[in-house]
């Protein structure tokens, strides 16, 4: 597979890099991995590219808050990949919605509040 072009789309706005849609990175955090511009990039069978990765300590509130904000943003994004095989045969654009990252959004919004049990 040869990736001819990869772009991400949210609210009808295309961007080259996934991290362009992410919230501003807190001063005490760094992206673990992020991909640059991916054009004419060859992938062998079973190979993958990490577009964006954030690693941190779950006891760090700055990290957990930022991770949650990123997940919410990712949920509104679709990744688009234009690609060919090694012989130049074009394929339909592959589209992958990242809605899985915001899977808790609706359940949290519709959740009933948990009330403490009464002593009576």
Description:
With 120 residues, this protein is an alpha+beta fold. It has one domain. The protein is built from two helices and seven strands, in the order E-E-E-E-E-H-E-E-H. Strands 1, 2, 4, 6 and 7 form a five-stranded antiparallel β-sheet that branches. The radius of gyration is 19 Å and the shape is elongated. It starts with a strand and ends in a 10-residue tail after the last helix.
> Order of SSEs, N→C?
EEEEEHEEH
Helical stretch count? 2
Largest sheet: 5 strands, antiparallel
Fraction of residues in helix: 10-25%
Q: Roughly what fraction of the amino acids lie in strands?
A: 15-25%
Task: List the defining traits of the structure above.
18% helix, five-stranded antiparallel beta sheet, 7 strands, 24% strand, alpha+beta, disordered C terminus, single chain, 120 residues
Write the layout of secondary structure elements.
Layout: E1 2-10, E2 13-15, E3 33-34, E4 41-42, E5 52-53, H1 61-74, E6 78-84, E7 94-97, H2 103-110
Antiparallel strand pairs: 1-2, 1-4, 1-6, 3-5, 6-7
Write a concise synopsis of the structure shown:
The protein is α+β, with helices and mostly antiparallel strands. It has 2 helices and 7 strands; from the N terminus they run βββββαββα.
